[in-house]
Specification:
The complex is a heterodimer of chains A (about 130) and B (about 575). Chain A is flat. Chain A is mainly alpha-helical and about 130 residues long. The longest helix of chain A is centred in the first third of the chain and has 25 residues. Chain A is built from 4 helices and no strands. Chain B has about 575 residues and is an all-alpha fold. Chain B has a domain of about 350 residues: Cytochrome c oxidase-like, subunit I domain (Cytochrome C Oxidase, Chain A, Up-down Bundle), CATH 1.20.210.10. Chain B is about 60% helix and about 0% strand. Chain B has 16 helices and 2 strands. A two-stranded antiparallel sheet of chain B has the order 1-2. The longest helix of chain B has about 35 residues. Chain B starts with about 25 loop residues before the first helix and ends in a 25-residue tail after the last helix. The chains are: A mainly alpha (about 130), B mainly alpha (about 575). At the A-B interface, α1, α2 and α3 of A face α1, α4, α5, α6 and α7 of B.
Chain lengths: ~130, ~575
């Protein structure tokens, strides 16, 4: 976890320095704000990983001498099939078409999106069809 | 490397261990699948179709320019064609092919994971990409035609007065959908690489392709939200009466260029880094050596990513409102890590036992073509030269050298990983013919454009003055485009001819990384067993137990081929 944290924090520090130089030199706000936001976007997960890396023992994937048996156990739940991503995708498609062809496309669009959100959440709670 | 240990057993919430998977088949499988390999294959097929569509637009453009006063298409149609050619190739082919298709299939297998971290989100990414592509292309079927403001949609050309009609809105909508698709894939790849690596697969043992995909994903997360925000503002300007990009209402048109290129330049590396990763893997495997300068390669990739966020305004030098020295210095600096990569690729081949398979030839073609595109990029990073060549064919030639290099690398990836995905090899003889057409075609296509650009021919024009030299150079470029078209047809022929003909076996290239340890195609959840991981090439270590694991920079040359490639 430490390497992951260092990559993100390192990138964040670089963006911070670049932002400082650029903003002071150019006095142009759009780029300055975007670089500052990029720095924050790196610090947020990077800081979280760093905070965790100090509180957890090394995972098997961080241990150069780990054996495959050492990683045995539950990795996670991986749903085999699910209809909800397709439903959500089609819903989003109709929502975007509403931007172009008229507000009435929102009816099927938002309908499908809400249906998919409910269905997907329920499926997640059940553990999915694996 | 004596015994194989049982891999972790993946258990679902109900506590069932499952090795075999029985799901729906046919179209229902395609619609409901969450398996990263099936989704990746859907991405691959869709992206290759987009390559063919974008390629056909390009052929029409080149046919129009074969004569000075071409009448094949009208001026308005020409505007739609170059806009949609750029949009399809950048938004719908190059990016999704890299991080949707190949990374989706290969990254989880390379790190020993059973699937992507969020399989349903992965499926959603594909549906957003497909519907985004349909949305953008459907512009051709509405009155007024498809978007015609160039793939960069500069304000104020893209406002509702200058570009009315549904085509432009469909372009914005399609881009919103594919943008979200890319962001979700970025999140998914980051989480997969951070959390689902096999035991012993430390960060500095990950294959270079996986490393590059991680860095690409971080760049996607930094860059794409800016584009999405920009598109929302553009839509608001067009329809809700805001004046963010219009001078009349107190807005700033150049702000669109800042937002667009703050996404657009990292996007160049989002497109390029995955292909760099593919080429690194292929050159190492076919030189029968470990990657030369493994850590140097990783730090070069990270430096490219870091610098890429500080170079966006080199696309805007001629606006006169950007800080020239800053952007020039940052752009020139990127040449350093890129140069490190090129030397490392050469170092990997140095004193290796190079096997000139189709994949390796394509990778070498990438190296040459990318070097040309990269070097002309260094010219353009210098403001005095950029002022002279901005908006001429020199710029077009520069980025077409780069993207043709990426097409070569992508083809290398298909020849290299195709057997793993399908279980069957492609025909090598047709593959080599395809390579020569593609490689020579790329150079014949771009070289005349460099000269035309230096001679002052502006880009995005459908007609040009009668001038024997300009006509000759344009004809030459059109010939190159025809050669590239033939190479694409050869690829399709190859897929048809080789269909289920040459069984690949699990490890046809004596590969280094974990994907060559599992079966071809891999089973549901990828692995029945995993080797011990003690270096960045666990499969090679397992298959060559006599060789000790050597430190970085050391290598042993070996010539053993595990299998023969069909010659006809």
């Amino acid at each position: 976890m430490k390497v992951e944290a260092k990559i993100l924090i390192g990138l964040g520090v670089f963006f911070g320095l670049m932002c400082l130089v650029y903003w002071n030199w150019s006095l142009e706000n759009a780029g300055g704000v975007m670089m500052f936001a990029a720095m924050l976007l790196c610090f947020l997960p990077g800081g979280y990983y760093y905070w965790w890396s100090r509180r957890m023992k090394a995972r098997p994937e961080d241990d150069p001498n780990a054996t495959q048996a050492g990683g045995a156990g539950v990795v996670g739940a991986f749903p085999g099939t699910s209809i909800w991503p397709f439903t959500l995708g089609m819903g989003s498609f109709f929502v975007v078409l509403a931007l172009v062809f008229g507000i009435w496309f929102l009816v099927p669009g938002l309908g499908l999106v809400i249906w998919a959100m409910l269905g997907g959440t329920a499926e997640g709670r059940r553990g999915g069809k694996v | 490397m004596t015994d194989l240990l049982k891999p972790p057993v993946h258990v679902d919430d109900h506590g069932h261990a499952h090795e075999e998977h029985h799901g729906p088949s046919g179209i229902l499988k395609w619609i409901t699948t969450t398996d990263h390999k099936v989704i990746g294959l859907s991405y691959t097929v869709t992206a290759v179709i987009m390559l063919v569509i974008g390629g056909m637009f390009a052929e029409i453009i080149r046919a129009q320019l074969a004569t000075p006063n071409g009448t094949l298409v009208s001026l308005a149609q020409y505007n739609e064609l170059f806009t949609m050619h750029g949009s399809v190739m950048i938004y719908l082919f190059a990016g999704p092919f890299a991080f949707g298709a190949l990374a989706n299939i290969i990254v989880p297998i390379q790190i020993g994971a059973p699937d992507m971290a969020f399989p349903r989100l992965n499926a959603l990414s594909y549906w957003l990409y497909l519907t985004g592509a349909i949305t953008m292309l459907s512009g051709f079927f509405v009155s007024g035609g498809a978007a015609n403001f160039g793939w960069v949609a500069y304000a104020p050309l893209s406002n509702s007065l200058n570009t009315p009609g549904a085509g432009a809105d469909l372009w914005i909508g399609g881009l919103l959908l594919t943008g979200f698709s890319a962001i979700f894939t970025g999140v998914n790849l980051c989480a997969t690489i951070f959390y689902l690596r096999a035991p012993g697969m430390t960060m500095f043992r990950m294959p270079i392709f996986t490393w590059n995909m991680l860095v690409t994903s971080i760049l996607i997360l930094l860059a794409f939200p800016v584009l999405t925000a920009g598109l929302v503002m553009l839509y608001a300007d067009r329809h809700f009466g805001t004046h963010i990009f219009s001078v009349a209402g107190g807005g700033v048109p150049v702000l669109w260029q800042h937002l667009f290129w703050f996404w657009g330049h990292p996007e160049v590396y989002i497109l390029a880094l995955p292909f760099f990763g593919m080429v690194t893997e292929i050159i190492a495997v076919f030189s029968r050596k470990p990657v030369f300068g493994y850590k140097g390669m990783i730090f070069a990739t990270l430096s490219i990513a870091a610098l890429s966020l500080g170079v966006w305004a080199h696309h805007m030098f001629t606006t006169g409102v950007v800080l020239l020295p800053f952007f020039s210095i940052m752009s020139l600096l990127i040449a350093v890590p890129t140069g490190i990569k090129i030397f490392n690729w050469i170092g990997t081949m140095w004193r290796g036992e190079v096997w000139f398979s189709t994949a390796m030839l394509m990778a070498l073609g990438f190296l040459v073509t990318f070097l040309i595109g990269g070097l002309t990029g260094i010219y353009l990073a210098s403001p005095p030269l950029d002022f002279f060549t901005h908006d001429t064919y020199f710029v077009v030639a520069h980025f077409h050298s780069v993207v043709m290099a990426l097409v070569l690398a992508g083809m290398a990836g298909l020849y290299y990983w195709g057997p793993k995905i399908t279980g069957y090899l492609l025909n090598e003889r047709i593959g080599k013919a395809q390579f020569w057409f593609l490689f020579i075609g790329s150079q014949v296509f771009t070289f005349p454009l460099y000269i035309l650009g230096l001679d002052g021919m502006p880009r995005r024009m459908a007609v040009y003055p009668h001038d024997p030299q300009w006509k000759m150079l344009n004809d030459l470029s059109t010939l190159g485009a025809v050669l590239i078209g033939i190479s694409t047809i050869l690829f399709v022929i190859n897929v048809v001819v080789s269909w289920k003909k040459y069984p690949a076996g699990d490890n046809p290239w004596d590969g280094h990384t974990l994907e060559w340890f599992t079966t071809s195609p891999p089973p549901h959840h990828n692995f029945y067993r995993l080797p011990q991981i003690r270096s960045e090439r666990p499969t090679w270590d397992y298959n060559h137990p006599g060789h000790r694991a050597l430190g970085h920079g050391q290598h042993e040359v070996h010539t053993q081929h595990d299998s023969e490639v069909p010659a006809s």
